[in-house]
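From the pipeline queue, job 12 of 40. The input is one protein chain; the requested action is below.

Action: predict structure.
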Amino acid sequence: MKYIEIGIGNRWFVRTETENKDGTEFEERGIIKPIYFESLYVRVWFRKTCLILDTKEGFKKVKKRRIEYKFIFGIVSRLDKEKVG
């Protein structure tokens, strides 16, 4: 999956994080194409609490181990054209 994110709190204001099928992940500055749309999300991370509103998975509240402050809009994209799952 690819996560294209725009917002405050990440290393770059606009970034793409790629999670490979083998579990490894890496991030790159900017928007990396192609984009095969899965869902949109908003993520607000205040201290150790992360609130996520996703068009596909709904609302989630997650506790994190580290303290961060983030406000992110994002797009979830598949890695390839074929529908997964």
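Job complete. The mean pLDDT is 93.
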